[in-house]
Structures are given as structure tokens and as C-alpha cells.
Amino acid sequence: MERQLWREVAVPSGRAAHAAGSCRAATWANRLHFVSRLTDHDDFLALRPFFRIVEEALTGIVDGADFFDMLAEDVVVDYVITVPGYPRRVVGRDAVADLYRPYGTQLRLDRCFDLAVYHDRERGVIVLEYASEGSVVATGATYANRYISVLTIEGRKVARWRDYLDPLAVFDALGWPHPTR
């Protein structure tokens, strides 16, 4: 059963936001409150810093109340550099949510930071660079990674997402895959 949750959240501003490691942009920090709707909210708590940094990067460029609302219903997500067992391509907003839902069973992100946004308005392409820090749920081991995401915007929604991450950082945190014969 799917549930929709609306909640109002206080957003720190200025130096307080920076000191707290907030992933919200100055455009968000200048507002006192924002409203976020997440489907099955508890299922996505481990990814909250990721959602917030993407929302920060795309504010004013795409429409949507939260990360999933910013994606086109038929979004195509390609995981170009990823880890074994992870899909190379996911099609559709619901499929992306289904893929991300169990994320918190293995990893929990504590923060996302070092955001850089490059926007080619003529082509509708946005490149995001960012980093994350968190931990492995089972062991408490540290997890840190860096990402590049190349987004194509159509109709004020993310229509295509190409994602690149450091797979070695995932292996260092979760363990190295066993060779197959």
C-alpha cells in the first residue's frame, strides 16, 4: 500500500546551514520552510541527503515537490559506471523508486556535499558533481563516494539521467565481489 506524506521542514540558512553540512542550496536556505512529498517516506530515509542535494541543484530548473516528482514519468536512468548486480538501465519513475527503496538495508548516507552544477540551457543538459559520506548498515564501516550525473531536461522534468560513481568505493565499504569462473 502506497502512502503519501506531506511534511513541513525547517531549513537552516546561511552559515548555520553550511556548518551543519546541509545539502540545501542558498536558494533553499533563504526560504524558511519548504514542503516535501515522498512516497513511502520511511523507505527512503537512507537516501535523504542524496535527494536533498539533487533538489538543491535542480531548484528553479525543473518542476516537482521532491526528487521523484522532478523525474519524468518515463525517465530513463543509465548507470554507466556502477557495480556488479546493479542494473545498467531503469525506465520509469516507479522503477527508480523501486530500485532505491531497499538502499537503506545496506547503506545509509549521512551527508552529500561539494555540489557543482553545470547547466547548458540551450541543450537542456545539466551536469552534477557531488560527494557523499555515510556508513554500511551491517558493519558501521565508513562509506564515501563521488558522483557525476548527466541529466537531460524536457518539459521541466528530468527525462534522462546518466550516472557515474566510483565502484571501488562501494567495494571498499561493502566488500569486494568474488571472481566468477
Alpha-beta classification: alpha+beta
Reading off the top of the CATH hierarchy, the class is best stated as: Alpha Beta
Whole-number radius of gyration? 16 Å
Oligomer: single chain
- Quote the distance from N terminus to C terminus: 42 Å
Per CATH, what is the topology?
Nuclear Transport Factor 2, Chain: A
Order of helices and strands: EHHEHHEEHEEEEH
In which range does the helix fraction lie? 10-25%
Q: How many separate domains?
A: 1
Shape: globular
Q: How many helical elements?
A: 6
Tell me the number of strands. 8
Enumerate the strands of the largest sheet in spatial order, edge to edge or round the barrel.
4-3-8-7-6-5
Low-confidence sequence ranges: 1-40
Mean pLDDT: 81
Give the CATH architecture.
Roll
Main sheet specs? 6 strands, mixed
Describe the fold and architecture.
- With 181 residues, the chain is α+β, with helices and mostly antiparallel strands.
- It has one domain: Nuclear Transport Factor 2, Chain: A (Roll).
- The chain is 23% helix and 42% strand.
- The chain contains six helices and eight strands.
- The strands form two sheets. A six-stranded mixed sheet has the order 4-3-8-7-6-5.
- Strand 3 (71-81) and strand 4 form a beta hairpin.
- The longest helix is centred in the N-terminal third of the chain and has 11 residues, at 48-58.
- The relative contact order is 0.16.
- Residues 1-40 have low confidence and may be disordered.
